[in-house]
Design brief:
Helix content: 25-40%
Strand order of the largest sheet: 1-4
Structural class: alpha+beta
Radius of gyration: 21 Å
Shape: globular
Number of strands: 4
Order of helices and strands: HHEHHHEEHEH
Distance between the termini: 28 Å
Strand content: 5-15%
Largest sheet: 2 strands, antiparallel
Length: about 220
C-alpha cells in the first residue's frame, strides 16, 4: 500500500520520528484523497497542520502486477460488473472512445495541442516554483520530461494502437508512463498567517463518485 515508501520519504525529508504517517490507495486520485483526509482532520480539530502527498513510479511497478488471477475466487467471474474490475485501463479508454464516438483524428489533434501547451509552459517556466529539483544518476531533473517537443497530429497519426489491433489509443494520445511525486502543506488560515506562510488556495469541499470499471472516467466528479 506504499506505507514503507511514505515513511522513508518522510524521514528523508527531515520530519521527526514522532510525526505519524499513513498511506492510502485510491488509484490515480490517491494524492487528492490524502489532501482531503488532512483537510478533514484540520477541520475536525484533530490536528493543526499536515501534509497531503502522492507518489507514483510507473517505471518500477507494473499496474497489472498486483492482479493474480489464480488467487481470485471463482465467484469474481460470475457477475460481469465484478469481472470487469480486472479490466486494464487501456481497454476502458477504447470503450469510452466508442461510447463518445471519438475519431482517431480527434484524439491525435487534442493530444498534439496538449503537447504544444506543455512545451510552451515549460519554456516559459510556469511550473518552476512548483517543482523541486531531484538528483538522479548524476543528473538533476528540474522539469517535466514527459512532453515531447515538436509533436503534431500528423506525427501522432503514424503510431500504432496499444490495446486493440484496430483501436484508437496509442502511446501518443494516452497517459504517459511517469515517475513523480507531489505534496501540499495544509493548515488553517490563522496558522498560516501566524507563521507567515503563503496561502495558495482554500479547500471548500471534497466529493468522490464511483463509476463502472469499464467506463473509468473522472466525468461525474471532476469538471
Amino acid at each position: 500500500a506504499g506505507a514503507t515508501t511514505a515513511r522513508i520519504g518522510q524521514l528523508m525529508a527531515g520530519y521527526p520520528m514522532s510525526v505519524p504517517i499513513s498511506a492510502i490507495n485510491r488509484q490515480c486520485s490517491s494524492g487528492l484523497e490524502a489532501v482531503a483526509i488532512i483537510a478533514a482532520k484540520i477541520r475536525a480539530g484533530m490536528i493543526k497542520a499536515g501534509v497531503g502527498a502522492g507518489v507514483e513510479s510507473m517505471s518500477l511497478w507494473d499496474m497489472q502486477a498486483g492482479v493474480a488471477i489464480d488467487k481470485l475466487s471463482e465467484r469474481v467471474f460470475e457477475k460481469e460488473e465484478t469481472q470487469n474490475c480486472l479490466m486494464n485501463m487501456g481497454e476502458t479508454s477504447e470503450i469510452i472512445t466508442e461510447r463518445e464516438k471519438l475519431s482517431r483524428e480527434e484524439l491525435d489533434r487534442y493530444s498534439a495541442e496538449s503537447f504544444i501547451k506543455a512545451e510552451v509552459a515549460i519554456k516559459e517556466g510556469r511550473f518552476r516554483n512548483e517543482i523541486v529539483p531531484v538528483a538522479v544518476a548524476n543528473k538533476v531533473i528540474d522539469q517535466d520530461d514527459g512532453p515531447r517537443k515538436g509533436v503534431t497530429s500528423q506525427s501522432l497519426s503514424k503510431l500504432k494502437p496499444s490495446f486493440r489491433p484496430e483501436g484508437k489509443s496509442t502511446p501518443g494520445n494516452s497517459s504517459q508512463l511517469t515517475d513523480g511525486a507531489g505534496a501540499v502543506l495544509l493548515t488553517t488560515r490563522s496558522e498560516a498567517e501566524k507563521h507567515n506562510l503563503p496561502i495558495r488556495g482554500k479547500i471548500l469541499s471534497h466529493k468522490v463518485v464511483g463509476v463502472a470499471r469499464e467506463l473509468m472516467t473522472p466525468g461525474p466528479a471532476v469538471p
